[in-house]
Write a structure and sequence with these properties.
The complex is a heterodimer of chains A (134) and B (247). With 134 residues, chain A is mostly helical. Chain A is built from 5 helices and 3 strands; from the N terminus they run H-H-E-H-H-E-E-H. Chain B has 247 residues and is α/β, with parallel strands linked by helices. Chain B has 2 domains: 104 residues, 3-Layer(aba) Sandwich (Glutaredoxin), CATH 3.40.30; 135 residues, Endonuclease, Chain A, CATH 3.30.870. Classes of the chains: A mainly alpha (134), B alpha/beta (247). The interface between A and B is medium-sized, with 29 and 30 residues.
């Protein structure tokens, strides 16, 4: 496959749109953070991670429930994974549930690094300001 | 048999998976007496500290922030404080997150206790029954001397509440001390009576107060292995078993 970063102007513009689209949603972003470490996982595992992780960010004191995770599965399956797969960032097999990192352009990779750094800084700020807000 | 309750609990093994940027040492030993397996998975550092997931047989039961686990590893918080459950944690207890984790882990844990810990948990259950003031408390004493040591306490429990107090022992009863009518004594030659130390409180109509400790001494070693539960269903089954088996 041709490298995305050296494509035509139209392709580059489409990639930037897709990358911003991927970053715009907190569940998609965290799914990508995790996939960059794990590379291959399943819908179930990814849903567990996204559910647990976002709950820990919002509210460290209460538990995420199986119902919370079920809602995450629905969102990943119907919305987020198809969108990321269309952009070519992940591969998703809805039958087997297998999810794999595909082709993350440098632009998106860098943006994810920066986004993670911002979230890290935000967490540490909110800890210093007594209580994190959701 | 009481042992079948233990086997049942032992078979419901849960797994705690820690998703965190750093490894939390000491977790395995913290959970080993709880019949809980511990696994680690890497997570990019987003400042949240990560989270822990509790599963049973691969099924997701819930997750809480990893802060809960870090609290558990703090030596300043004792086991008995953690497991107090209910409303008593408000003053000296651990933060909500730890409670959320313990709630997930269980209502029932497999325990390995020494005699001092057995006494502490027994007392916790008796106190709970006393505060509730109504319901059924069933206690099995391994030896008459063990009851003799607790007799005054049990007389007080029965006298100052509406509790229905039942005591179980081998037939070398009665101990040297008399027992008032307020306490129902059941003697039986069954091997498990005398082999097991148990305290079962049915909650007196409040599921949240139901709790039980059932443990067997390992080869007279002073170590007891058994179950400690706040699960109303398990407590109800134990209560029904004792009531029907030793009328």
């Amino acid at each position: 496959m041709e490298s995305r970063s050296s494509g035509s102007g139209d392709e580059d513009a489409a990639m930037v749109d897709a990358a911003f689209g991927a970053l715009a949603d907190v569940e998609r972003r965290h799914a990508l953070y995790y996939l960059r470490v794990e590379e291959t996982t399943t819908l179930g595992e990814l849903a567990t991670v996204v559910t647990g992780w976002l709950r820990a960010r919002e509210d460290g004191a209460s538990a995420a429930t199986p119902e919370d995770r079920r809602r995450t599965i629905v969102g990943l399956h119907h919305t987020h994974l198809p969108m990321l797969a269309d952009a070519g960032f992940v591969r998703y097999d809805p039958d087997s549930g297998e999810v794999a990192l595909a082709d993350i352009p440098d632009f998106l990779d860098t943006a994810l690094d920066r986004a993670l750094a911002v979230e890290r800084a935000a967490s540490s700020d909110s800890r210093h300001n007594s209580r994190p807000r959701g | 048999m009481l042992r079948s309750f233990l086997d049942e609990v032992a078979s419901r093994r849960k797994t705690v998976t820690v998703f965190a940027p750093d490894r939390l040492d000491g977790l395995e030993s913290q959970f080993e007496t709880r019949n809980v397996a511990v696994e680690h998975a890497d997570l990019p550092d987003d400042g949240s500290g990560g989270f822990v997931v509790v599963t049973e047989g691969g099924e997701f039961l819930g997750s809480v922030g990893a802060a809960a686990v870090r609290e558990l590893l703090e030596p300043s918080v004792s086991h008995s404080e953690l497991r107090g459950g209910g409303t008593r944690l408000s003053e000296t207890g651990p933060p909500e997150a730890v409670r959320a984790l313990l709630d997930l882990l269980a209502d029932t844990t497999f325990v390995s206790f020494d005699k001092r810990q057995m006494l502490a948990v027994s007392r916790e259950i008796e106190d709970r029954a006393y505060r509730r003031g109504t319901g059924t408390l069933r206690t099995g004493f391994q030896r008459p001397a063990a009851f003799a040591a607790q007799r005054e306490r049990y007389e007080l429990l029965a006298a100052e509440s509406l509790l229905d107090v039942h005591v179980y022992a081998r037939p070398d009863w009665p101990p040297d001390v008399p027992v008032s009518e307020r306490i129902t004594v059941h003697t039986d030659t069954a091997a498990e009576i005398g082999a097991f130390w148990f305290v079962v409180f049915d909650g007196g109509g409040d599921d949240y107060q139901a709790c039980a400790l059932v443990a067997e001494e390992v080869d007279e070693s002073g170590t007891f292995r058994g179950l400690w539960t706040y699960d109303p269903e398990t407590v109800t089954e134990l209560d029904a078993y004792l009531e029907s088996t030793y009328p």
